[in-house]
Amino acid sequence: MADRKAPIGVFDSGVGGLTVAREIMRQIPEERIVYFGDTARVPYGSKSRDTIIKYSRQIIRFLKTQGVKAIVVACNTASAVALEDVRKELDIPIIGVIKAGARTAAAATHNGRIGIIATETTINSKVYTHFLEELNPGLCVIGKACPLFVPLVEEGTFLKDPITEEIASRYLQELKEKQIDTLILGCTHYPLIRSTVGRVMGKNVTLVNPAYETARELKTLLIEEGIGNTSLQEGQEQTHTFYVSDATEKFQQFAESILPCSVKDTTQINIEEY
User: Is 117 helix (H, G, I), strand (E, B) or coil?
Assistant: First the structure.
């Protein structure tokens, strides 16, 4: 059995997965996180399936060197195209971010019309559509690729800029015309522009953030596997570790702005060595 005190590995193509890390810290504060952001190779959404699987394997090999007891693929694109392949190769639990969000959306919709915004690769994989239709064959699922959202979020300075609002308006017009009542933020970067998306879609559309549901799923998994950390003393805070493949200072500044903890040390590594 894995060491209960061992950390949880969390990875993404960049800063988006910090939205998942943030929820894990809030919901399971006793757990320690080792986070890897592949900032040198972001975005994943325009990459081929084979490339994304290769990147995911490299990152998982690195996380294994850190002694992680479970892994969260905090990237919708990698969850969509690589998760099932890499799961077969692992001897520790691994979860993605897609199924938890899809279940929430299926339960939330009143008119059966669900929209998904995500990267091109995630939309083209139709993984959300297939899973939602398994849950309820009567659902109408409309996907919309929003490739410019990830670079805008990674840039950091455009989160509340009129440029982002204008791009969101153009991307989301089609979904508004289809009269969806539930919208899945199908990329872990997108909760960082949730307020903009919410304004554009209007108050009658429920926004589903898979990061929240993924943290809940992880908590359940740790209990079921008997590997949850039970040794943290009351009032004691966990120390988390952060790694990136490029742009350390920029990542650190961004992480400090959205996480409920201090990000004192972020280490750059050459992920191609793994």
Answer: strand
